[in-house]
Amino acid sequence: MTRFIIAACFVTVAASTFADIIGWRAHRGLYPDANAVTEWADDKNVIWKTGLPGQSNATPIIVGDRIFVCSEPTTLVCLSMKDGSILWEKSNDYSSDAGINAGINADGMPLAHGTNGYSSPTPVTDGTFVYVLFATGVAACYDMDGARQWAKLVEKPNHKWGHSASPILVNDTLIVHVLDVIGLDLVSGAEKWRTPAEHAWGSPVATRIGATDVIITARRGDIIRASDGKKLLENSGGLQYATPVIVDDIVYYVEGIARAVRLKAVGDAVELANLWTTKIRGSRHYGSVVVDNGLIYASSREGSFAALDAVTGDVLYETKLNISGATNSVYSSIVLAGKHIHVGSEEGVTVVIEPGRAFAEVTRNTIEGFRSTPVFVDDRMYVRTFGNLYCIGK
To answer: Mean pLDDT over all residues of the chain?
Structure first.
């Protein structure tokens, strides 16, 4: 059984290895080789659209000619990239085969908010197996043909609004952050280590500090060694809702209070240097930011869009996108595909923006609403809406 050793968010390895592992915020939301269309609608530039068994906020992941998406409450769906046909779907409910084999007692589902549901975590894959986590606390592993390798009740979330943090892969370990941060063996699902932590909406990210592979939690910015779960540093920063972005040795924690810190290995410890702190508009920032070419792009749930200088933290501009309805509904993370930034909303409106130090809107497009984040391959964009998976292109 071949296992890859490069994590999706490592920033000290060559970019060509990033394709080995695909999961939440792979490539930090950057798709430099994409050549996607900038205009679409239900009747324009839709190559195919496939109805899904339930809604979900999870982002699709693409492996070869297959696309994996989640559906409420605990279903993993595999589709053909060519025509959108559903190849297989597997339930991971407590009462399903996956649940029964995980040794789960059907003693009631954890709490979850209707907006969040149970399927917000995005799956992760090493190209051979797909690993999935649901807000029931169940993690599972499948091969490309849908054969379940293992399933496990890691621990039940206990937050009244549920769970959304996605799993990540580092070397031979699947790492999940439910209540604690837990390292699972890829082959068996057995628990390798467990580190106490605070609940987080945002997903942890992986990087390398010196020669040590670590993960950084979203909520407090704790630095945890991936091999054994040892906490090397506490509270390097943190976000209420989103996922940090790492570029080289700098971690960007961007929401209402934006912060940049530099991490440095000092023996077996980690040294922290605060670079800058800046305030930007917006009550909450559900979506993660994009950092590219020395600039940071962020959007609040109200659709307040900002560009910051990544070196100084200076706010270059802030503008209202007018894509957020009465529910303040920008949940999607920002992506930069080819030459354009994309910011989408729960209403299904996506604003396409020219990157740079001044704001320039290119187009805005509307389809069915979504809370997930689009992904791009070549000249196609894939969007998981509430009811469908769209393939958009020419």
So the answer is: 90
pLDDT tens by residue, 187-199: 999 999 999 998 9
Percent of the chain with pLDDT over 70: 91
Phi-psi region of 52 (alpha: psi -120 to 50; beta: other; left: phi over 0): beta
Amino acid at 86: I
Q: Secondary structure of 289-332 in the HEC alphabet?
A: CEEECCEEEEECCCCEEEEEECCCCCEEEEEECCCCCCCCCCCC
Residue 12, classed as helix, strand or coil, is coil
Radius of gyration in angstroms for the set of CA atoms belonging to the chain, rounded to a whole number: 19
Question: How far is Cα 104 from Cα 96, in angstroms, rounded to an integer?
Answer: 10
- What pairs with residue 331 in β-bridges? none
| pLDDT band, very low/low/confident/very high, at 326 (cuts 50, 70, 90) | low
Q: Which CATH number fits domain 15-392: 3.20.20.70, 2.130.10.10, 3.40.50.1000, 3.30.70.100?
A: 2.130.10.10
Local structure of residue 311 (DSSP, 8 states): T
